C-alpha cells in the first residue's frame, strides 16, 4: 500500500484541476523540480495509485442512464466463482464484499426498466447467488470523491 505524502496530495489536487497537465506544467504550477514530479508520476504508475481511465466515463454517456444496487446473499463455498461470473456481465459496474445480512453489493446499470429487469435476472441466475434485493438509484447526492481527503492530506505536514 502506498502512503501519499503532502507533495503527492498537492500534485493530485493540481491534476484534479488540470487532468491533462504535463509533468513540466505540474512542476511549474507547484514550484517543484521536474524530476521530482516525474519520479512521483513513475512511482504512482508502478504502484497503481491512479485508477484506470474507464472509471471517469459515466455509464449514462454510454447509453445506460439507469443505475441500481443489488445486494446478494451468496453460498460462501462458491464466492470466488460468483465474483468471477459477475465480472463477465458488462452491466455490472462494481462488486463490493460486505459484512452483515448480505454478502455482496453489486452496482449495475441499464438502458431502461426492462433492461434492468434483464440484468437483475442475469445476476440472480449466477450459480451460488441464493437471493438478491435491488434498489434503484434515484439521484446521486454525493458522487464518489477523494478531493476532500487530498485537501486534508495536503494541509498536514
UniProtKB/TrEMBL annotation:
GO terms for molecular function: sequence-specific DNA binding. Residues 74-139 form the Transcription regulator AsnC/Lrp ligand binding domain. It comes from the Bacteria. Coiled coil: none annotated. SUPFAM superfamilies: Dimeric alpha+beta barrel, Winged helix' DNA-binding domain. One of its GO terms (cellular component) is cytosol. GO terms for biological process: response to amino acid. InterPro entries: Dimeric_a/b-barrel, Tscrpt_reg_AsnC-like, Tscrpt_reg_AsnC/Lrp_C, WH_DNA-bd_sf. It holds the Pfam family AsnC_trans_reg. PANTHER family: LEUCINE-RESPONSIVE REGULATORY PROTEIN, TRANSCRIPTIONAL REGULATOR AZLB. This is Putative transcriptional regulator, AsnC family protein. It comes from Mycolicibacterium madagascariense. The lineage of its organism: Bacteria, Bacillati, Actinomycetota, Actinomycetes, Mycobacteriales.
Amino acid at each position: 500500500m502506498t502512503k501519499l505524502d503532502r507533495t503527492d496530495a498537492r500534485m493530485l489536487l493540481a491534476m484534479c484541476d488540470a487532468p491533462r497537465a504535463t509533468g513540466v506544467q505540474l512542476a511549474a504550477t507547484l514550484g517543484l523540480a521536474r524530476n521530482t514530479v516525474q519520479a512521483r508520476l513513475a512511482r504512482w504508475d508502478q504502484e497503481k495509485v491512479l485508477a484506470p481511465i474507464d472509471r471517469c466515463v459515466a455509464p449514462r454517456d454510454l447509453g445506460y442512464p439507469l443505475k441500481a444496487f443489488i445486494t446478494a446473499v451468496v453460498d460462501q463455498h462458491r464466492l470466488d466463482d460468483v465474483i468471477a461470473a459477475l465480472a463477465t456481465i458488462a452491466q455490472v459496474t462494481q462488486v463490493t464484499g460486505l459484512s452483515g445480512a448480505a454478502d455482496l453489493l453489486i452496482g449495475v446499470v441499464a438502458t431502461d426498466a426492462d433492461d434492468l429487469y434483464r440484468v437483475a435476472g442475469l445476476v440472480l441466475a449466477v450459480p451460488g447467488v441464493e437471493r438478491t434485493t435491488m434498489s434503484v438509484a434515484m439521484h446521486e447526492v454525493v458522487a464518489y470523491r477523494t478531493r476532500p481527503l487530498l485537501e486534508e492530506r495536503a494541509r498536514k505536514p
